[in-house]
Amino acid sequence: MSRQVTRRSLLKASAAAGAAFMVVKPGVLAAGRSPNDRLNIAGIGVGGRGHANLSDCRNENIVALCDVNGNNLAAAARQFPNAKKYVDWRTCLEQADVDAVICSTTDHTHAFVNIWAMNRGMHVYSEKPLANSVEEAALVRETYLKHKDKIATQMGTQIHATDNYRRMVELVRRGAIGTVKEAHVWCGRTPAGGGYLPEAGPVPDYIDWDLWIGPSPFHPFNPEYLKGCLSWNPFWDFGSGQIGDMGSHMMDMPWWALDLRFPTTCEAAGTPVNPDTCPQWLTAVWEHPANDWRPAVKVFWYDADKKPQIRSEAVKGDLFKGVMYAGDKGKLFCDYGFRVIEPSGDLTYFAPPKPEELIPPSPGHHQEWIIGAKTGKPTLCNFDYAGALIMHNLLALVAYRAGKKLEWDAATLTAKNCPEAEQYIRKKYRQGWTLNG
């Protein structure tokens, strides 16, 4: 990889990031409103991550709160007493003064909330992953692209806003380890296995269980589902395992650094396929075509006890999660808070970037979204970027369940060599629930 190409690619990345602070589009807020006005925000899902997201946006107007858990709703109402309260998010979206939505529900309703809100002209900040199937992620992305000149979107991969991420991108794109042809991504977390949980007593009066189930097939109430994302995420009807959860964060690093989009193939392996739960370990590999500054690249995923055993002088100890870029002049190891180069020779060929070539710092992940909603400045984890990322990650689960290496056509959402994969690309919903509403 030549110095000229890597420098050009870095400047391209820097310009894209810098654009978030320079470009202004008219008409993002309603006519007659100033960018100095505060956004009117609805929080949908207000416990856990929802509470954290609302707190990070508390300087705006929180005008609506929605949760199927009455205890969560009451706690949020104490923090934002002037906000209207809802149990059904579909009713919440009818509130006339709402400008923007923060979606912090369970994974299986993310795509529904995101699409419905965008269809109503609302800005959306959504917890990861954006969707619970490849088709859902594609429709979230397509819906955003239809409205992108009028709305701002952001997926909640907060680590994307850190300086470490930016320095990692610069190292890869400037050729610090030469030409990168492979990226290895892993997380050692092991999800629970088994089957859907049995009925366990009556539904508490503060839980609307039917709305919690939402568009998924009905399952009887069990309080274990409600103990946090790791309690419900392993089940196909409610989540997408570790590749959907931690994969949204970890895969984001090579996704940005290598400017990835749509793979041409995907294959995966894991524990024996269970009709109820995601695999307890998963390995996957995607092949990505060359772009205008790098050659074709393979991306690998490993979770649970399949994570690679790193043996490197540059990295001390065992890495529970991380990314390793393999280049022809060395390796780059990184995680949320560090980056370490292991060169195959000396580094005299590599010149650090000049100050003007650095990707600008972020004002903060939530703040970037708020600024975008008020001014039209682009967000880095918008639903075009993030939608393609989630499509990519969830394709691994399709390949795993189909048991075959897929030849992938992202434009038509089809595995050209594997028609049986169709049943895993798209989901069926309970009567009365519409994805594109």
Characterise this structure.
This protein is of the alpha/beta class and 437 residues long. The chain has 2 domains: 1-17 and 160-359 and 384-437, Dihydrodipicolinate Reductase, domain 2; 18-159, NAD(P)-binding Rossmann-like Domain (Rossmann fold, 3-Layer(aba) Sandwich). Helices cover 31% and strands 18% of the residues. The protein has 15 helices and 15 strands. The chain has helices at 3-18, 49-56, 70-79, 89-92, 107-119, 134-147, 163-173, 209-213, 229-232, 241-244, 246-250, 252-257, 365-375, 383-402, 422-425, and strands spanning 40-44, 61-66, 84-86, 100-103, 123-126, 153-155, 180-187, 265-270, 282-288, 297-303, 321-327, 330-335, 338-343, 406-409, 414-415. The strands form 2 sheets. It has a 9-stranded mixed beta sheet with strand order 13-12-11-7-10-9-8-14-15. Helix 6 packs antiparallel against helix 14 (383-402). The chain is globular, with a radius of gyration of 22 Å. The chain starts with a helix and ends in a 12-residue tail after the last helix. The model is unreliable at 1-27 (pLDDT under 50).
